[in-house]
Amino acid sequence: MDALSKQIDDLAGRVSGAAAARVKDIKGKIDAIKAVYYMSPPGATGYRKPILVAFRGGTPAEMVTGITSGFGGMGRPSQTSIDLMNNLKAFLDPLLARMKEITDKDIPELNKILAGNGISYIR
Questions:
Q1: Where are the alpha helices (DSSP H) in the chain?
Q2: What is the pLDDT of residues 95-105, one digit of tens each?
Q3: Where are the domains positioned within the chain?
Q4: Cα–Cα distance between 40 and 65 in angstroms, integer?
Q5: What are phi and psi of 119, to 5 degrees?
């Protein structure tokens, strides 16, 4: 997501017309994903989040980055580990679906427009 976001940001100032509109649309979709799934802003703590989120360990992104800390030892997984895996799945599935839509539909459409303007493709 970061690499795609950087490429879109780099294109934003170099294109005009239909390409600029598509770049703005794709940037909006990526920013919407970041707003939901990325880490808390600097200086924000779990205590500034809704009480349930604070007690469960932070935002979904913060929980995903710390998920391995919930696993340990040998034997069968604890209910906490199972809950963490379910949280990870609930976090990743919508993110992957939305990113797949962007990469499978929006980016190829933008690349066609860019090719017509002689601008490098997005990878």
A1: 2-12, 18-37, 51-56, 60-65, 79-101, 107-116
A2: 889 999 999 99
A3: 2-116
A4: 12
A5: -105, 145
